[in-house]
Design brief:
Distance between the termini: 73 Å
Largest sheet: 2 strands, antiparallel
Shape: globular
Radius of gyration: 20 Å
Number of helices: 9
Strand order of the largest sheet: 1-2
Length: about 280
């Protein structure tokens, strides 16, 4: 009986949800892939709502046509996938992919970097906006406003996949992940889903609709970049670092996620601090 009281006070059972939603012959539909697809579609739909709401823009003049966003969604999807995969290869597991270069194309095995995906989308937005004569930062603002929904969905999918789990912990809501060893751990994926998803979306919604910050190009985009960076750095203190990297520079706390997110915070602060209202969005 005395051994019972030495056990952790409480822990939550891991919900055994199949990572595969449905199988049709050799085709398997995963929650992870659906999270990406739904996230892109929601950001597209939300951006179209923003650019057709004249009350959000200077003098009621819309900054672009909804059809522009219809065309951009293909560019965004390519930027997310290519950037996300390239970022993971370069930032997180380069020696493995140098040794096995064909594995770079095995995206079904997992391995996507948000920071790489962000750089891919920024490149896509820059090229697309220049091609269409749209203010680049305005395009970034309207796209960024809806992105947190997809981030939250993908983090929930990480949780379902029992991946990217947190550090060992005895908090009452800790979870023993099936592949996380004999430890109860922080469900850090859900922390990220809450902060990068719900909280960040609500903050950006407040800026776009209550503070009318879409009239100040790059403020909303800067708030997104800074908000994500701060959220990611905070959660990294509870998240287990990637096994192939571990903690960096001889510390027991510094991770690659923190290093990659710090420039985002600085860039976001710069964007918000230097953003100026304009009477009408102009092409760069």
């Amino acid at each position: 009986m005395s051994e019972y009281f030495l056990l952790p006070l409480a822990s939550l059972p891991f919900p055994n949800i199949d990572p595969v939603i449905v199988r049709i012959g050799p085709l398997a539909v995963h929650w992870y892939g659906v999270g990406y697809i739904v996230g892109i579609l929601v950001a597209w739909w939300y951006a179209k709502r923003l650019v057709t709401n004249a009350g959000l823009w200077p003098d009621g003049k819309l900054p672009m046509k909804p059809g522009d966003l219809d065309d951009f969604i293909v560019w965004a999807a390519i930027g997310v996938v290519l950037g996300g995969r390239t970022g993971y290869v370069l930032f997180y597991d380069l020696p493995r992919y140098i040794a096995h270069p064909l594995d770079i194309f095995a995206v079904w095995q997992g391995g996507m970097s948000f920071h790489g995906g962000l750089l891919g989308v920024i490149l896509a937005m820059t090229l697309f906006s220049l091609k269409r004569g749209i203010h680049t930062w305005t395009l970034f603002d309207v796209v960024a406003a809806g992105v947190p929904v997809g981030l939250g969905l993908v983090r929930v999918a990480n949780f379902i996949n029992s991946e990217l789990w947190g550090r060992p912990s005895d908090v009452p809501w800790a979870i023993e992940f099936p592949n996380g060893g004999p430890f109860t751990r922080h469900p850090s994926q859900l922390y990220e889903a809450l902060l990068e998803g719900l909280v960040l979306f609500l903050v950006l919604r407040f800026l776009t609709h209550s503070r009318l910050k879409l009239r100040t190009p790059r403020f909303v985009g800067g708030a997104f970049i800074c908000g994500y960076g701060l959220s990611r750095i905070f959660v990294e203190f509870f998240r287990e670092p990637d096994q192939q990297l571990g903690y960096l520079l001889g510390t027991n706390w510094l991770t690659m996620g923190m290093i990659l997110s710090t420039p985002m915070v600085l860039a976001g602060i710069w964007a918000m601090a230097t953003a100026k209202p304009v009477s009408q969005p102009q092409a760069i």
